[in-house]
Design brief:
This protein is mostly helical. It has one domain. The chain has three helices and two strands, in the order H-H-H-E-E. It has a two-stranded antiparallel ribbon. A hairpin with a 5-residue loop joins strand 1 and strand 2. The longest helix is centred in the first third of the chain and has 29 residues. The chain is elongated.
Length: 108
């Protein structure tokens, strides 16, 4: 069987896991300033995101080592894509109000 066809689902699964992990991180960071209990929100988010990713990778690990590598490749690509989409600054004016360049990027 063609290797590309065999491992493409694992790359797509890694993209899905990475998008949920880093998208969830982005949402958490955006919501923390409005939260009444930010530490709890951050910890809960970190635990849920970690369990999701570790569980997904565990499912893939039952297959073979190349499947794990393919899944992690998708995860890393998702990190790059989510980082570019959620970039703060001039490229994304909806987010530029959350930082103050004069304080080194600290929240206003």
């Amino acid at each position: 069987m063609n290797v590309l066809v065999l491992y493409t689902p694992f790359v797509i699964f890694g993209l899905l896991l990475g998008t949920m992990f880093f998208g969830g991180l982005w949402l958490t960071v955006r919501k923390i300033p409005q939260s009444s209990y930010p530490i709890g929100m951050f910890l809960l988010s970190a635990v849920l995101r970690s369990v999701l990713v570790l569980g997904g990778i565990w499912l893939v690990a039952r297959s073979d080592p190349w499947a794990i590598g393919s899944c992690l490749l998708g995860f890393v690509v998702a990190r790059i894509l989510v980082t570019r989409v959620c970039r703060v600054g001039k490229d994304n004016p909806t987010l530029s109000h959350t930082t103050n360049a004069s304080t080194g990027g600290a929240l206003k």
